Amino acid sequence: VVPGETALAFYKAKNPTDKPIIGISTYNVIPFEAGQYFNKIQCFCFEEQRLNPQEEVDMPVFFYIDPDFAEDPKMAKVDLITLSYTFFEAKEGQKLPLPGYQ
């Protein structure tokens, strides 16, 4: 992906169970310092997703890397950015804790 240009990627998710699952995704960018330059325009992670029993889906993310990435001396040796997702079942009424806080 060239900084400043948009890109489209797909992530595959499968519900291997015999019951429907409603889930949500969180994402991670590695290296951490590159995360400030990663911008999602549209993402499946913005909303809960329903997967029916045994259903497999391709979920899109439309994104770009901020052009300032190429000008940041701290990013000079970064030639690979990894975007990963964790998909987990949403629980009605459950509040997720803030990282680092009790």
TrEMBL record:
One of its GO terms (molecular function) is copper ion binding. It is found in: Mitochondrion inner membrane. InterPro entries: CtaG/Cox11_dom_sf, Cyt_c_oxidase_assmbl_CtaG. GO terms for cellular component: mitochondrial inner membrane. The keyword Glycoprotein does not apply. SUPFAM superfamilies: Ctag/Cox11. It is a single-pass membrane protein. Keywords: Membrane, Transmembrane, Transmembrane helix. Interacts with CNNM4/ACDP4. Interacts with RANBP2. Exerts its effect at some terminal stage of cytochrome c oxidase synthesis, probably by being involved in the insertion of the copper B into subunit I. This is Cytochrome c oxidase assembly protein COX11, mitochondrial. It comes from Neopipo cinnamomea.
